[in-house]
Amino acid sequence: MPSGALPPKKASPYVANVNRNKARQMSPRSVVLGALGVIGTLWMLFRLFGSSSTPKSAPKSVPGMGGSAYAKTVIVTVLDEKADADGPIADFVKQNRIDYAKKHGYATFFPSANNYTIKHGSSSWAKVPALRHAMTLFPEATYFFNLDPHTLIMNPTLSIETHILAKQRLESLMVTDVPIVPPDSVIKTFAGLKGDRVDFVITQDREGLSEKSFIIRNGDWAHFFLDAWFDPLYRTYNFQRAERHALEHIVQWHGTILAKLALVPQNIMNSYHEKQATAANDNGIYKPGDFIVNFGDCNQKAKGRNCENEMRPYYARSVQADL
To answer: 170: which of 91, 137, 163, 195 fits an S-S bond (Cβ 3.0–4.6 Å)?
Structure first.
């Protein structure tokens, strides 16, 4: 066909559209909006995954919660009104912890055992959910110090960091290669454990681990450990000493727990009152200057004991030591 017979070329409408799209993409408005979008995305990612030294808002205050919500150490004592119904010990037990906490910048938490529904087992199990509860109220805390209501802090000058938890100090204290349950348990405490790898610090008496006084480091491992300890299987197993024997069981059968445990001498944080002498280790009887005195089962009237009568004179001494 002669070239003059070809129809004239027409500009493609798609080219114009592409050009218009390019112009639209390069407009100042688009650049600004795109930049804002990138900044917004980065901000969202930072908020979701970035770390922060403080939570977005302070935890809500609940009964029994004292001290700064951002304290790095929290003392937890579960009060059992039923067990101590005849002895008004709660007031001076709480004051003992509060005075000590103020001195060192710690916080306190005094939940009631009645706050927790223990479907299986005695109220003594309440310390375990109470610690989980404390971790939700003080999410920024590093350490939680469980103290039984039948114990008193006798040397308030000692901080738990310098007295126990500092890496070199803890490594010098750790009792290694000894049976978890004396005298002949085949499972023994680890040797060579580094202080900064420890998440659980506890003492031992002649019978085994003493759960009346222990320190746990906040974190995923602590959540796992407390959940494992509180498992319904153990609460329904009818251990003779309830949560104490359950603790010994999981420490011996779960290497992931034993590998985080540091055993320290009894007089470091759990000295026994003289009426508990038969259960105490050689270094475990309270003497002046010790950090803690533990009165054990002082609420057993059948054995002629009375918590208020035994504890109040020691509380008076602890107040004098704080002056």
So the answer is: 195
